[in-house]
Amino acid sequence: MYKNVTAVDDLSFTVYDGEIFGLVGPNGAGKTTTLKCICGVALPTQGLVLIDDYNLFENEQQAKKLLAFVPETPNPYEILTVVEHMKFISLLYSVENPAPKIEELLKAFELYDKRNDLVNSLSKGMKQKLTICCALVHDPKILLLDEPLIGIDPRGSRTLKDMLIQRARQGKSVIISSHMLYLVEELCHRILIIDHGKKIAEGSLEDIRKEALASSDASLEEVFLKITEEPP
Amino acid sequence: MRALLYLNVRLLKNNVIATLKNPKQVVPALFILTLFAFPLATLYTLDMPQPQIQQFPPYTTETVKPIIFSFLTFVTWMTVLHSATKNTLVFSLSEVDFLFPSPLKRKTILLNRILINYVKIASQYLGITAFMLFIFSIIYKFSFWPRILFLWLAIFLSMVFASNLGGLISLVSSHLSELKRSRNRRMLMIIPVLFLGIIAVYTYQYISEGTPLVEAVVKALNSSLVRTLMYPMAAASDVAVAWHLTVDAGLKIVFLAVLCVVTLWGVLSVEAHFYEASEATSRELWESVQKMRRQEVVVSESFVKRMRKITPFGRGATVLIWKNLVGMVRDIRTLLPTIFMAMFLFVLMLIREGEFEFFSALFFLFFLIFITTGYIRWDFREDLRRIEIIKLIPDSHFRIVLSEIAVPVMFSTGVSYLFLAVSFLVFPGSESKTFLTGFSVVALPLFSMIMVTISNLSTLYYPPQTNNQVVPGILSMMVTMMVLSPSLFLGLMFFVIGKMYIGLLVVLGLNIGAALVLLKLLTRKYRLFDLTSS
Hints:
The complex is a heterodimer of chains A (about 230) and B (about 525).
Chain A: E1 20-24, H1 31-38, E2 50-51, E3 54-55, H2 60-65, E4 67-70, H3 82-92, H4 99-108, H5 124-136, E5 142-146, H6 154-169, E6 173-177, H7 181-187, E7 190-195, E8 198-203, H8 205-211, H9 220-227
Chain B: H1 2-20, H2 23-45, H3 50-55, H4 61-85, H5 93-99, H6 106-140, H7 145-172, H8 178-208, H9 213-222, H10 224-229, H11 231-240, H12 247-269, H13 274-293, H14 301-306, H15 319-330, H16 332-351, H17 358-375, H18 380-383, H19 387-390, H20 397-426, H21 433-461, H22 470-496, H23 500-528
């Protein structure tokens, strides 16, 4: 709750190791607020966030070390070069010998040629890629992504998707909040649909289809529209 | 902390390099520096004879102290009042996105922001105090070094105290609604008003005992009750004029340092809603800046409603006059202080009636124009973010520019005409009174137009969204001086040779020419203006 507005209400869910978890809902449903609560930026008036047995509000530093958050709109430091930005994030998360990891990420997201350019000279898509690189540099156990593909070119999108799948295979968790339902359907093992800050449905696509009484070949989009439909 | 140190150093380094690579900032800065350096160097090398110095004795400790005391008190209260409604600890969106979710402690992030503020305060006030003191030390031949240390230390410590106090209020009230914060601000207003009331009562008492006004104000500010009520600022003003280390000055420095530490501890202890409030404020502030940078224009319903034609003045661009007029009247936060200040200055002038001639009163009116055109900014200074809409108005660029600057010109002219009328009635008649009034009727709006046009030119050449405003601020002051100096020179010359009337007519002609040239320049700049390339 913030300034008398209840953004998220009685929401409880678990994300397991090696799982890509999708968070979907209409505009203003409380997706971003949920992600901010998980990464410790917003304080819930009630409730608990446990990250690998660490209570976020009691062991904030330890819990946050395991997390990385990619916001919807990239806002990297404009007056740092790309490589300086990555070094700064490495220092922030106490990454030992970050240079090879930085080089690998910049090459994967086609930013290596721009490594010595100031961030303010990058396009919006490049800034988004840089933000993703920054989130990955300390190899977080849980990666939180808010609309990660907005502004990213097709090659960058493919790279990111492959990386997310690879991370899940390594036993790391990913939480994606997105309106791009095809992306959620393609990547996520389980999905949580929220509306007005409340849980509407949770489970695999199969589970949600059953809950929505939709056909077995219905897409997530069809299921989502049905389940979030306002009663007449 | 290592990461933050790396970040701060890199940001500083890259900012310095980026500024040095920008000729738009470097060339005027060098020009300004050269202009200041030449007279200073001349004064420094000039061996002024001692008797001449004695004719203009420096301000004494007893007169400097109340000036510093009132300045520090004013700044402290402004900071406290501002903090009651606005967050003084504003973070950039980059800090929100990268520092807030990081494993850094909240206290560390907050401390980093506060320390950066301290460094900014320290360097800004070091520059200002060193410059002022250096000039005075050259003119009055006193030793610069020990004095600058005490003066700077006193101002720095009290500014840190004020900033901490502001931060504390801002954090404590950050979870309150806008309405409650606004109410709190009104309640807080009672304290400085009471304080001013006490000073006014003391001053009135001294004046009624026959003390001259300035001396009475000084005595009131030096009175024990006033000093006790704002003791930290009084102690700082004592340190500022200490000139050398005494036990008393040392104890007061320790007292101020303790105050700073205690208030800093207070700020760091209050963490409730810190992230949420900071994020909400930062996002609101920075997103509007980003929109301006990307030339995104917010078309609000109220803006469209304001776009009405003013029939008597024609159509097209005159919608801007209506829009700015409504905006100015609605923006009571700017309008009321400007009117109050004008009235306050005028009353001050009337109190000194005995010493003032009608001729001197006119100088005040020109000063009033200078003040009001600086405060009332309903022209391109306010409309920069809407410039793309304004460019869609199907009218000539010259008419659009004239309509844009009309409201501040009309307002300052109106206020000065009002006081001109009062002055005409209050001051005794003289041979030149009617002619001077006639001259003022034409010269005041002309002067206002020149001032507003220069300010608008500065805004279009150096948009605040993409430029630091220090250089353009000084530059526009200098351009104003350059435009108006010939008039002053000619006016004085004709006055000396006994042909004042011709001189005033020449001055009017010269300023009409200057105003037209400046308007043409503004029109051209507006036509070519592109925020993304500024």
